[in-house]
């Protein structure tokens, strides 16, 4: 499902470019075939590998946010709804790789301004609200 979120975010790249916002995708593992399938098909920009999973640990307050496949996905109506949304977008999906780590999104300001926005995936397949992300990026340009 991260492919679907990445795709819907990257499709708005011209908006982010106009706001002077750089986009980065952060991966927590490297499976060559999966990276080649992800980039540039679903994300055409910079892709970073977080070997220590520090980005993901930061989202979890120092620990990885993990949930088992059965409880976090199969028995979770919200996660199943998110899966259906991604599937309806006709985005290819698979269950390759480590699938228990949850992700999220940071908007980081320039200089020492720090984190302007944080979104944490609570249910597998949760997406940061796009309108909210664009609004935060727009507000950052005012200051």
Automatic annotation (TrEMBL):
Which keywords has UniProt assigned to this entry? Cytoplasm, Redox-active center
Keyword Cytoplasm listed: yes
GO terms under cellular component: cytoplasm
Using the UniProt record, give the first listed, main subcellular location.
Answer: cytoplasm
- Record Pfam families: AhpC-TSA_2 (PF13911)
Subcellular location(s) per record: Cytoplasm
Keyword check for Cytoplasm, yes or no.
yes
Q: Family per UniProt? A: Belongs to the peroxiredoxin-like PRXL2 family. PRXL2A subfamily.
- The identity of this protein, by name, is Peroxiredoxin-like 2A
Specify the species: Abrus precatorius
């Amino acid at each position: 499902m991260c492919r679907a979120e990445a795709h819907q975010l990257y499709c708005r790249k011209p908006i982010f470019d106009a706001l002077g916002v750089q986009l980065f995708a952060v991966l927590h593992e490297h499976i060559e075939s999966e990276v080649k399938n992800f980039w540039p098909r679903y994300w055409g920009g910079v892709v970073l590998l977080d070997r220590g999973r520090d980005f993901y640990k930061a989202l979890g307050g120092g620990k990885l946010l993990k949930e088992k496949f059965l409880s976090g996905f199969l028995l979770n109506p919200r996660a199943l709804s998110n899966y259906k949304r991604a599937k309806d977008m006709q985005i290819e999906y698979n269950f390759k790789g480590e699938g228990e780590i949850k992700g999220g999104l940071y908007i980081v300001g320039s200089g020492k301004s720090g984190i302007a926005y944080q979104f944490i995936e609570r249910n597998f397949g949760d997406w940061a609200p796009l309108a909210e992300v664009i609004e935060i990026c727009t507000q950052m340009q005012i200051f």
